[in-house]
Design brief:
By secondary structure, this protein is mostly helical. The chain contains ten helices and no strands.
Length: about 240
């Protein structure tokens, strides 16, 4: 196990990579803008069945930006021999991958929590004085859950990118999975689809949910998917040639 004195320089180096790569900074901004904007539009239309999810409807689009952020942050290491240079500075591959995952998680969590709070405030304003506006307690729960969910989904993409070694392949796999296949499977398989990473994690954004998962157990299921993807990614990084 790496000591803090050896982990911190690796984390600092990975953080510098992220904040100096414009596409990654833009990706974080897109998480905020897409989630708030589409949530406001859905709130203005109104949803009598689940006004809380209407407020957070934009997460369906914000998660695409989070996936792109996680996938790009990892896949950039596999272009132009960048990983060989990285491993020359940090020979311990597991330490490097842990630092990379941490450098991805921290800014996404920070932006995700801001996104959740902004989405809640804008969405409630868009709903106006309607009696269907979500209560502050469940709204705050959803805002925190929004930040955690976006972080988990970005790390999930990071783990898959480490396995596939390609940002394009990762996006080509995950975007259809989350935007198309998840809903098709959900319509055909009953409650089984509730355990897919996106559907499980988004339970926390609903006022009512008919499935077997609760708000926090749903996030726990997404966390298990994320942990499995990161473990697979770490194994691939450790076993394959740079």
């Amino acid at each position: 196990m790496s000591s803090p004195s050896t982990f911190q320089p690796a984390l600092h180096a990975e953080w510098i990579k992220i904040r100096t790569l414009r596409s990654l900074v833009a990706g974080l901004g897109a998480v905020l803008v897409a989630t708030v904007a589409f949530g406001a539009l859905a709130s203005a239309d109104g949803d009598d069945n689940d006004p809380l999810f209407a407020v957070f409807f934009g997460i369906s689009f914000g998660q695409i930006a989070a996936i792109a952020f996680g996938a790009t942050a990892v896949s950039s290491e596999f272009r132009g021999g960048a990983l060989r240079l990285t491993l020359a500075a940090v020979p311990d591959r597991r330490r490097w991958f842990a630092a990379k995952a941490t450098a991805i998680a921290l800014p996404v969590l920070a932006v995700g929590l801001v996104t959740g709070a902004a989405t809640l405030l804008v969405g409630r304003a868009a709903l106006g004085a309607s009696s269907d506006r979500p209560a502050w307690a469940e709204g705050l729960r959803a805002a925190v859950g929004c930040g955690i969910y976006l972080t988990l989904i970005a790390l999930f993409a990071a783990g898959i990118a480490a396995v596939l070694r390609s940002g394009a392949a990762t996006l080509g796999l995950l975007i259809p999975l989350l935007l198309i296949i998840s809903f098709v499977v959900g319509d055909l398989s009953g409650n089984a689809a509730d355990y897919l990473p996106d559907r499980a994690g988004q339970v926390i954004l609903h006022s009512d949910w008919d499935g077997g998962l609760g708000p926090w157990t749903g996030l726990a299921v997404t966390a298990l998917w994320t942990a499995a993807a990161l473990l697979a990614g770490a194994w691939c990084v450790h076993r394959r040639d740079a």
